[in-house]
Design goal:
The chain is mainly α. It has one domain (21-204, 214-410): MFS general substrate transporter like domains (Growth Hormone, Chain: A). It has helices spanning 21-40, 46-53, 57-85, 87-107, 109-129, 131-141, 147-157, 162-176, 178-196, 215-223, 226-255, 260-285, 290-310, 315-327, 332-344, 349-378, 382-400, 407-421. The radius of gyration is 21 Å and the shape is globular. Residues 1-16, 203-211 and 412-422 have low confidence and may be disordered.
């Protein structure tokens, strides 16, 4: 049986070389859970690294901001590799890079360890083991009518490990020091490569679409689609908000008098709430407009941030904030991936998702770095919280008005309008 792709519907028939839907979902969920659980727990290292190495909050924030930027830059590249060679070799190679980056973070010092280890190498590793490649594998393994739900299940699994990794990481930091915890994280990253061995062989090649015969043409088609551009710009806000919270929430809670145990627990709560929220969003995305659901998520996140900073910060409010934001955390992923596959098909899915995700990571870079800069300059995170609110409202407006027609329909309408004006 050969693998077939209709130009815009994204319909795929599997052949015997591709993983079964169940295997693809289970393995992708485990890979994503480990990858994102480690990444979302890196904020725990801020205070101990500052105390041990004497680095500033902005220097630590810059390293993780660099990680996000490298992740975004690498995502289209690993996406092309995933489209061409299948997920297994990409996942194994990037898991090794991820682990090496965490080892270097432990022993490389403030400049090389943070910027090259936690920044560049970890960024490349997360790009290969994160959303794009595993979601492409799942999208190709399941029928079109089940695609959004399947991606929602995988995204739900994406933060389950945070519930364990964050408390374990904090416990190791307190008992053995942050360097020992970084090595434990490196071992968990290396385990991603072992899990990825079960993802199956690369899928058979997809037939070329007349609309997008090669990668360059597919990217050109996407960046000329007004809806894709609007969705990509809105994705910036997602990265800005979430990466700021991941990196700076533990420190902000400490300033407000909340204990480190509650800070670690808050990251764990984000993980388990995200598992529920991503699953629910995946189910809703199959029934309702994905672009409207995305807009609602951006709006609810922004309103939650306003409520959190306006009220006194306590252990209860911190955990409540973590629960609500966690519920809204990765729910955007099945919706964005569903829109990409619906508008442009699956032939270049990993690549186009990577292009959109680059905007997300630029936002993450800004959120992590500017959060640290605002704290160093003003001894307060007020500027960063205000920025998140403004950017969140802008994302809501962009996403609500998005044109989500498929690429062929959008070009037809644009051509008709151009002819009429002529």
């Amino acid at each position: 049986m050969t693998t077939m792709l209709t130009p815009n519907s994204g319909t795929v028939k599997q052949d015997g070389s591709a993983p079964s839907p169940l295997v693809a979902i289970v393995v992708a969920g485990m890979v994503l859970s480990l990858c994102m659980g480690l990444r979302q727990s890196l904020g725990l290292f801020l205070q101990p690294i500052r105390a041990d190495l004497g680095v500033s909050a902005s220097a630590f924030g810059f390293a993780l901001a660099l990680q996000n930027l490298v992740w975004g830059l690498a995502q289209p590249v690993v996406g092309v590799c995933g489209d061409r060679y299948g997920p297994r070799p990409v996942l194994i190679a990037c898991a090794a890079i991820y682990a090496s980056g965490l080892v270097l973070m432990a022993w490389g010092g403030p400049l090389i360890g943070l910027n090259i280890g936690a920044g560049v190498l970890a960024g490349i590793g997360i790009a290969g083991c994160g959303f794009g490649v595993v979601l492409g594998a799942v999208s190709r393994a399941v029928p079109p009518e089940k695609r959004v739900q399947a991606v929602g299940i995988v995204s739900a699994a994406g933060s389950v490990a945070t519930l364990l990794i964050a408390p374990i990481g904090q416990a190791v930091i307190e008992a053995r020091g942050w360097q020992a915890a970084a090595l434990v994280f490196a071992a968990a990253a290396a385990a991603i490569g072992l899990v990825a061995c079960f993802i199956g062989r690369p899928p058979a090649k997809l037939e070329r679409s007349e609309a997008a015969p090669n990668t360059s043409a597919a990217i050109g088609t996407a960046i000329r689609h007004p809806g894709f551009v609007a969705m990509t710009l809105a994705f910036f806000a997602c990265g800005f908000q979430l990466q700021y919270i991941t990196v700076h929430l533990p420190t902000y809670l400490g300033i407000c008098g909340v204990s480190t145990e509650i800070s670690a627990l808050a990251l764990g709560v984000i993980g388990i709430a995200n598992a529920i929220g991503s699953y629910v969003t995946g189910q809703l995305g199959a029934r309702y407009s994905p672009k409207r659901l995305l807009a609602v998520i951006y709006l609810l996140r922004t309103l939650t941030i306003i409520a959190f900073v306006a009220l006194p910060v306590t252990a209860f409010s911190a955990l409540a904030f973590a629960a609500v934001m966690g519920f809204l955390w990765l729910g955007v992923v099945p919706l964005v991936s569903g829109l990409v596959s619906r508008m442009f098909g699956l032939q270049h899915f990993n690549t186009l998702f990577g292009v959109a995700f680059f905007s997300h990571q630029v936002g993450g870079f800004a959120g992590a770095w500017l959060g640290g800069v605002s704290y160093d300059l003003t001894a307060s995170y007020a500027t960063a919280w205000i920025s998140m609110v403004v950017i969140g409202f802008c994302a809501f407006l962009l996403q609500w008005s998005m044109d989500d027609r498929d690429g062929a329909s959008s070009r037809s309408v644009s051509g008709a309008l151009a002819s009429g004006m002529g």
